[in-house]
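Input record (Table S2, row 249):
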Amino acid sequence: MISDGAAAQLPLWSEQDASWSVRESRRARRMVVRVFHSGRVEVVVPVKTPPGLIATFLERHRLWIERKRAEARRTAVVPEPFPPGSIDLPACAQRWRVHLAGGSGRVRLASADGLIILSGDVALRSAQRAALRNWLLERAAEVLGPELEACAREFGFTYERMVIRRQRTRWGSCSVRGTISLNACLLFLPPAAVRYLLIHELSHTRHMNHSRHFWQCVARCCPDYRQLDRLLSEGWRAVPAWVFGEGEA
Ligand SMILES: [Zn+2]
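Output record (zinc ion complex):
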């Protein structure tokens, strides 16, 4: 029997569709479907799962899969021009316009009141990139330094010093000596996520691990920490290409 609703729906996938893959896994105990940022869908199934079962499984998760694919399309990475026309820093609610002033010789950067002026030879892309990266590190120190201090005061933490880095894989860390290092890319995240990261690293000054006691300490200062931790792990997508990329776009 085919109900009216089901008859109206198109098949969700076909084996000819290259954006889909079904992979048999010896370790899989049940079927799992994943949608990647690229929109690619991967279905992992136990060995010798009948195709009919896979189809039923996918049908059951149709709405979820379609929602995830739509999300992936919306957030697909579009090539960014360089230099960027403006730089948004949600962490401190600032937008900086970038102006190429031209001129000759080495690249110089001046910034004030929401305007960044890059002067010097406009063809020196890698020097412009380096100048913007330095600027980002300086902004991060100016913005995150006082925030870390305020957070420590608010919850009674002490730390030795703060360093700002530009890192691809971690938002922050805390050394046994109490040095808290923060990723300048935090400026591209919402304030609540930044505050959580600061509390996370400050909590490491008391617990140098991710034990139950550590998470209790985090939770006392930041009850929403789970949700914000997830936001951080997705936050890399908010970092513009010029911060790490070397392409001459
Ligand atoms: Zn940690």
